[in-house]
Amino acid sequence: MNTPAQLPGFFSRLSIALGAFFKSLGDAEFAARVRDDGVGPIAAPAPAPTPAPAPVPAAPVLRAPTAESALQLLSLFQREARLIDFTQENLAAYSDADIGAAARVVHEGCARVLREHFTIEPVRSENEGARVTLEEGFDAASVRLTGNVVGQAPFKGTLSHRGWKAAAVTLPQLAEKHDARVLAPAEVEL
Amino acid sequence: MSDARYAIGIDLGTTHSALSYVDLQSSDGEKTVDGVLSVPQLTAPGTVEALPLLPSFLYLPHPDELAPGELGLPWNPNGESQIAGEMARSRGATTPIRLVSSAKSWLSHPSVDRRAAILPHDAPDEVARVSPLEASTRYLEHLRQAWNAAHPDAPFDQQQVTVTIPASFDPGARELTAEAARNAGFAPTLLEEPQAALYSWIQGSKGAWRKQVKAGDIVLVVDVGGGTSDFSLIAILERDGKLEPHRVAVGDHILLGGDNMDLALAHFVARKLQANGTQLDSWQMRALTYGCRSAKEHLLADANATVWPIVVPSRGSKLIGGSIRTELTRDEVTAFITDGFFPRVEASARPAVRTRAGLTQVGLPYAQDAAITKHLAAFLARQQGATAELEGFAVNEQHRDGGPTFLHPSAVLFNGGVFKSDILAKRVMETINDWLYMEGAEPARMLEGADLDLAVARGAAYFSYARRGGGVRIRGGTARSYYVGVESSMPAIPGMEPPIEALCVAPFGMEEGSELELPGQEFGLVIGEPVNFRFFGSTTRRQDRIGEVLEFWGPDELQELGEIQATLPAEGRVAGDVVQVKLHALATDAGTLELAAVARDGQRWKIEFDVRQQ
After folding, report:
1. CA distance A51 to chain B (A)
2. What are phi and psi of B157, to 5 degrees?
3. Closest residue of A to B323, CA-based?
4. Packing angle between helix A10-26 and helix A28-36, nearest 10 degrees?
5. B310 phi and psi angles, rounded to 5 deg
6. Do B321 and A82 touch (CB under 8 A)?
7. Which of A105, A174, A176 lies at the smallest CB-CB distance from B311?
8. Cβ of A187 under 8 Å from any chain B Cβ?
9. What is the spatial distance between Cα A183 and Cα A107, in angstroms, rounded to a whole number?
């Protein structure tokens, strides 16, 4: 991470968010701490600009292996889906038809990465729009209450998003000396 | 190997290999506990992933090409100098001169020296090439090490291991496959792939297969893999109240598979783009082939889809604007794949054979006619008499006009990723059923529930298990009779090759473990001087007994295989002496055929199928 500023840049935030996400999955205590600190749950591993976790509890997350996993995932998205190429371009210069053609590459590749490396399931099995009841002691890390949040459980409300959770994560193993910061090597044709 | 804990099956494929296993301790009868090994392999420099398939590709990197430490594998932190698997495939796509592919097809190519370092065959001189045998050894070694890493308590070489081969492999290619396994550190049993597919289907049915087939059924196995097409016929017999599958016939070696289809489509789409002024380079061409494959799979899986877009991404980092968009339509896929590779043809159709343009063939001998249904028609016609000798099989003679012109299968089992498309499986079924209808026979049914990708590996593991007495066995013995050419005693006619007679040295249907001696005939072999014989095989001559001499045979009946060679090393005898030997044929337990020269005092020498080219 080369961002010189005090505040983390987009990729740093992505890395932190993903790190917190994976750690929450694997480490119940950490997940509880995230919940207790009032940090919003992290919805999905997709590179959405999720709210960055507060820096204090995130501090132990910045261990090297976690950053490496994020870099690794970026590298996969670039290799399979050309995601970095896509996001580094200025869309203003192109017609929607050109963007659409490229988006097919990105969509197909991202879907492949998610399918091969994650088992992604909805948090709630009900249809969106359905009425749901949250009993006392529900898992606040996996269900986020919005709107008129008052009173006591059980809470009754409408499911506006089903949520996503990764039931399994299988990222490739990396060689000891592998430099994960190289997301895509330059190519020189001889 | 009584202490084996697992029965292991390896599908050593042209484009992919896989390893499946049955846990012997937890399996009983037809209830088996089985799994597929995830094979750790490099997928990118410094990146190891465990995948269910090991792509059968070998990449020979330049010494400066990769940073040190980037090739480590779980069982070897320094890595091998040759990379096998997914990374080999993807890296080789951009550097084909360092990529070994289709080693299996080369291993069965009789006119090259398969122990010579000839691959990649278009590599420049500085690349240290490998032989087809070495490449196959490397894939098997990789699987062995992956197994040992996952099962440290059950070492690979102590398990019961079966390796699959195409049914059409000749004795030389079978022997080389067994040798590759021995070089990789284990003693395998060989099994024909269509049989493995049937074993997998039997295993998958959990006993219900007895309801889906009955005594008197003839099952046609159609196996279209990545690089080869392979057919077998398996008759279902009843013995002592038990159903017993008998493999009665195998087809010829056809180098034609799913990869050819993708390539054909890609060239078609490239021509379409060229007509619009877009020229693709070789990198884009490969991307287009991938795109065509996925478009083909979508269009062939969904009968309602009419068009599927294909995008060839730009090579540089400018993805938008630099990418080329095109599309594939249903009509094109139908014309190219369904009608091109699986045309509706008459039962009398035969594949076209063109005479080869040049004498020096460097590449692989690909099938000249892409129509798989024509190859199938020829196979069924040639094998019309395949069940004549089996008890309980009435030769179907009732027929409108004349006798049947081909063997009538009553059930069809598909194997290979190509048949994930229902449209293609349906096309083959319809074509076969049209042929059957024309001869007044009942339509054949399709056997359901086949696992198209992993059936061969799974079936091989089940076979390893069945060999120990656990499950159903397919019988049948060797699927060819073999002959050596001997000069006829007829006087030579000027301008004509001296006529040759074929002496049967191994009859059809030799059961494994049996040995036969060629009666009467003795050969005088000179110590220290190699003697070459012309060698022939037949998939149809079932009645010839050992020692029988054929003076005439039909053009289709005998196929000439590579020459075989007997060399008698001195070993205590005097070079130049003549030793009288008899020929012996041995069908080994491992599934290979051995020919041996046996002297009167019992000393024996193996006759090599794979003669080194000079």
Report:
1. 29
2. -75, -5
3. A102
4. 120
5. -125, 130
6. no
7. A105
8. yes
9. 19
Residue A153 lies in a domain: yes
Task: Name the pTM for this structure.
Answer: 0.84
Per DSSP, chain A holds a count of helices (H) and strands (E) of: 6, 5
Cα distance from B422 to chain A (closest Cα, Å)? Answer: 23
**Cβ–Cβ < 8 Å for B607, B504:** no
Nearest CA in chain B to A171: B49
Chain A residues closer than 8 Å to B324 by CB: 101
Neighbouring residues of B351: CB distance < 8 A, sequence distance ≥ 6: B367, B368, B369, B371, B374, B375, B378
Characterise B69 by phi-psi region: left (phi > 0), alpha (psi -120 to 50), beta (else): left
- A76, A105, A118: best mutation site toward chain B, by most B Cβ within 10 Å? A105
The domains of chain B, with CATH numbers, are 6-191 (3.30.420.40), 210-256+361-458 (3.30.420.40), 258-341 (3.90.640.10), 481-608 (no CATH)
**And the tokens for A85?**
């190429």
Q: Please say whether the dihedral angle defined by the alpha carbons of residues B83, B87, B91 and B92, taken in this order, is positive or negative.
A: positive
- Can you read off the two tokens belonging to residue B469? 């007495």
Instruction: State which residues form the domain around A135.
Output: 10-169
Please report whether residue A180 resides in a domain.
no
Whether A176 and chain B come into contact, CB under 8 Å, resolves to yes
Does residue A181 lie in a domain region?
A: no
How far does B80 lie from chain A, in Å, by closest CA? 14
Say how far apart CA B334 and CA B255 lie, in whole Å.
Answer: 22
Of all residues in chain B, the percent with pLDDT exceeding 70 is 94
- Give the distance from residue A111's alpha carbon to the nearest chain B alpha carbon, in angstroms: 14
Distances (CA, A) of B25 to B7, B22, B161, B200: 10, 9, 16, 19
- Tell me the per-residue pLDDT of A107-156, one tens digit each, with 9 for 90 and over: 999 999 999 999 999 999 999 999 999 998 999 899 999 998 898 889 99
3-state helix, strand, coil in chain A (%, to 5): 45, 10, 45
Please give the Cα distance from B409 to B399 (Å, whole number).
16
Given an 8 Å threshold on Cβ–Cβ distance, is A91 in contact with B320? yes
* Interface subset of B 490-549, CB within 8 angstroms of A: none
Using DSSP's 3-state secondary structure scheme, residue B366 falls into coil
Which residues neighbour B423 within 8 Å (Cβ) at sequence distance 6 or greater? Answer: B300, B301, B303, B338
- Nearest by CB: B320 against A99, A179, A187: A99
CB B30 within 8 A of CB B121: no
Instruction: Please list the residues that pair with B564 across neighbouring strands.
Output: B533
Q: Are A173 and B49 in contact (CB under 8 A)?
A: yes
CB-CB neighbors (< 8 A) of B325 in chain A = 97, 101, 104
Total domains, chain A: 1
Check A89 against B69: CB less than 8 A apart: no
On whether any CB of chain A is under 8 Å from the CB of B94, the answer is yes
Residue contact B320–A86, C-beta within 8 A: yes
Chain centroid, CA B357 distance in Å: 26
Cα B328 to Cα B336: distance, rounded to the nearest angstrom = 11
Angle, CA A27 vertex, CA A24 and CA A31 arms, to 5°: 40
The 10s digit of each residue's pLDDT in B473-493 is 888 888 899 998 887 766 666
Q: Is the pLDDT assigned to residue A5 strictly greater than 60? A: no
Whether chain B has a CB inside 8 Å of the CB on A188: the answer is no
- What are the φ/ψ torsions at residue B479 (nearest 5 degrees)? -100, 10
Among B75, B4, B1, smallest CA distance to B42 is for: B75
β-pair partners for B222: B231, B414
**Is residue A3 one of the residues assigned to a domain?**
no
* pLDDT tens per residue, range B116-137: 999 898 888 999 999 999 999 9
Interface contact A98, partner B, CB < 8 A: yes
